[in-house]
Each structure stands twice: as C-alpha cells, then as structure tokens.
Here is the input.
Amino acid sequence: MQDSLGNIMPPNPDWGDVADLNYENDSMRLAMIDAMKFWLTNVNIDGFRCDVAVEVPLDFWEQAIVELKKVNPDIFMLAESELPDHHRKTFDMSYGWYAHHIFNHIATQEWPLDSLMAYMKWEEKNFSTNDYRMMFTTNHDENSWNGTVLERMGENHKPMAVLAFTYFGMPLVYSGQEFGNDRRLKFFEKDTIQKPQPELQDFYKTLIKTKKENPALWNGTYGGRFMRINTSNDTDLLAFKRVKNYNEVITVINLSSNKQQVNFVKEIEGNFVSVFNAETLGVYTSGTKELAAHGYQVFVKK
Here is the structure.
C-alpha cells in the first residue's frame, strides 16, 4: 500500500520495517506465495511462523497452504493468532495468548488457580483436540514490552515453565530463556543474549526430555487430557495428571512463598517418581516431605 506521494505505508505506524500489503492484488498474492516457496526449496525450512496472522485475510492463507503443501506436504504452520478458523484448513498451531495472560496473573497469585479451569472450558468450546496450541511464559513481545519472566512471574517463573510444558499443547522456549535471561532485549535492533544462569539448561533439558518421552504429555489426540487433582490447599497448590494408555504423569506446583504439604483429596494409586530428583510422590503425600516455596515436581508412574 502507498500514500498519495507513492511512499510505502506500514500496516501500523510503529512498524516502519514492514510494508502494508494489498491482498486484493492477485499478483501480489502469487509473489508472496512464490517467496514462501523459495524458503522451502532453496533453504529447506520445514515451516513458517506467521506474524500477526489475524491481520492477513484468511482466504490468502487457504490459498497459500495448498501451494506450499505441493512443495512439502509435511510443512508446519504456526499462526501468531488465537482465531479458531485458522486451524480449519491452514495452520497446525496457534498462540495460547489467553493462557499466557492467565499464567502471568496466577504466578503473582492475583488470580486464583481456578482461572485455569475456566480457561480449559473456553479452549474445549472453541478449539478441537487436534488444534495444537502453543504454551509459553515469554516471547519476543512479552520480553521487550512487558518484562522478563523474572519481572512478570518473579520466583514462580520455573513453576510456570513446568506448567507450560505439562498443561497441554506445545511449549515454546524463547531465545535466552534457557539461560535465565534477566533483561529486556531490544526489539528492532541486534541485542546479544547473555548467559547469567547456564544451570537452567539442565532444567529445560529435563522438561524437554520428559515431554518427548511420555505419551501422556504429547500433543492433540496423541496425548492425554488435563485432569485436575484436588488437594487440601487448592489456593496455593496446583496438581493435575495426564494419562495416555499405560503412561501417567502428575504435576504439582506450589505458587506460594511457604512450604506446603501435598495432601490429595483422593488417594493416588501406583509408584510415581520425580523426573527432577528421583523422589517419589509418596514421600510428599505421606507428609514426610513438604513441597518447597515456589516449588515444583513432575512425577511419572513406574
């Protein structure tokens, strides 16, 4: 799009690095699709993250995906969007923005943990099980404009990462997150990521390994449904399980600043072992040990 003087116009006054494209122009559409094909054929990428996908006409994405799948039938499409229609014919995964905002608020205990249950009802109403949803505690927008995970989630940034990996959907690890990046990165300029906490790599490696090796945590119909486990303190503790065939995983996080006893309302059968330190679930449910302040555990049934 151009102004009266022929200058290329951005879609937003703050986005001076991109042009507002005219999707009513068929030649422009074909050129855009051709450019996307270039990355598939010449660079061999296997998918696209489509920025602000909701601002692009849906029928363009439908047109594009038909042509792109001719090049790579297995192409993976991620929409920065929360529009259910994007999943019908075009995108494999979309951003769980609503979930992320809830994460921010429950991390500070401004909102109750029941907010997650209400959100799940909204998810089930608007999306199908095969609509992959991306869970995250940070990304480029959040880090630059709203603050680091330490600013937004404080000491609960690790429990919230555990939640993002085990709740449902596919987790995002944003640049520098695995090093505990503690500053806002520049948005439009090059900004080198420092490594203040390299030990966090082991934390994220464990989460990734756990996600990969346990079918209960897989995505869509391949994984198990989120099922909350009620405790004697559902204000501070969040406990839930996911089950797929023989595989069962239980997550427990403590968002309070105090140690908490882990007392389940109903007894859990079986031997569950922590992926982080090999402690058993029984050590906690028996009262032998309390879950640390801002603590977390992920137990796998053996």
The chain has two domains: 26-222, 227-301. The radius of gyration is 22 Å. The first helix runs from residue 26 to 41.
